[in-house]
Design a protein that fits this description.
homotetramer, alpha+beta
């Protein structure tokens, strides 16, 4: 067991409750096993080599627009990368929650980096990059 | 901050090292933020099996708008399911290819069925449903 | 074609000449199509005085997203009136300036009031409400 | 009266009925006077010299997507002018009617010409070009 290490994590109480319920539903013996699996799944995705290929796609974000400075940060990031973002569609889900979908186009690695930055922003509850092609390299 | 709780996790040393490297590469301020994001992402996926749950998301399509009757078909389908589709963002990639992104919201199984129909339409080169949540059921 | 009727109009010769030139310049196939479009456009405007009528339209805003608290204010206003706003299209014009276009739908007076509030927000450089109809009350 | 000429117009019966009602409500003595006023109003707008100035804005269209070939025509036009159109927001108002809003940017005369073509397309019930600026030439 000398390869195992221990660290502590701080999260919202309610989120921990939901994690534990999911662990039970998925049949995990303990939380650590579930979290190790999550980390591995994210590593696999993260390592996908996307390179310099021209791609199109969408970045889908859900966030609470009341979070301090969050919207400023997201808009700043988007303006800095406006050569990648065609435009953004913003839907007001309820009093607090926003669904924001960015139509993106550019070199795969640049798009991925932008998506990572947006999704990592504190207050973004969930985000996903969906990569498709610009259609040119896909025969009808 | 009384909503935050702390717990400890045991994982393989090497896995922790890789996690920390990914956190840096993705721009997270600390490990807890990254792990909270992973938990939320897995909760969203886990809940997708729950058919009647209210979800939000996007459907990303790439197609050649010159394909006979394709656009008529896609628009007909969209109008028939306008209770699910908040609106559609259409980007003109080049002379032929369209990137169309639908912002959607509704019961998971209905959204999935609509996505399947749109993606299966002859002439749609690539399509993907990205499911997220309406934000309400995802703790900060 | 039994829904089409024919009537005659008397106008100044010079005005007719100018009308025909404008029709050519705008690309109309014939005078009747142009005049039908004018009638519909005037009907739309005429009905705007009718406060409770259901309308559709767009609110176009240009603003500098760096202005303190401006984006928070605009988003708050939009979430409070999300029964009117279908969704918002946000384009990043340059490092500072945003073009934001809201697709709106609702009772004319409510839409007008929301537009007034958004346009009056300190930092919005220019804004405009474009009222059209929901299509149902405009014969072909 | 030798300056007056007479021509005939074909429009939808229901549209003529609505025209006559508007004429009464506005206090016109006859239909010809009302139509002459409309023509003059459109000439004034049409003649606005917009020139080569860089503008941003929106084109708002309402149309019935069931009209034969209309959507193909609108999409063809948009792809041909994709250097002007940032993207298009499409809202499904009811089973038949679409609200489509294009975010546009470019030289004023090119944008105006594109708007004229789209609005003149047979089956577009109502359309409007809203011109604003790119923000750069408007001091805060």
């Amino acid at each position: 067991m000398e390869n195992v290490t221990r660290f502590s994590v701080s999260v919202d109480k309610e989120l921990l409750r939901e994690l534990d319920q999911m662990c039970r539903e998925k049949g995990y013996d303990n939380r650590s096993l579930a979290i190790a699996d999550m980390i591995r799944a994210h590593l696999v995705e993260h390592r996908q080599q996307l390179g310099k290929r021209e791609i199109a796609g969408s970045i889908t974000l859900v966030y609470d627009h009341h979070k301090h400075h969050l919207q400023d940060l997201l808009t700043d990031l988007q303006h800095e990368h406006r050569e990648i973002i065609i435009s953004a569609l913003h839907c007001h889900l309820d009093h607090d929650n926003c669904l924001e979908i960015l139509a993106v186009r550019g070199k795969a690695d640049g798009v991925k980096r932008l998506a990572d930055e947006l999704i990592a922003a504190k207050g973004v509850k969930h985000g996903k990059l969906t990569i498709t092609s610009t259609g040119r390299d896909l025969p009808g």
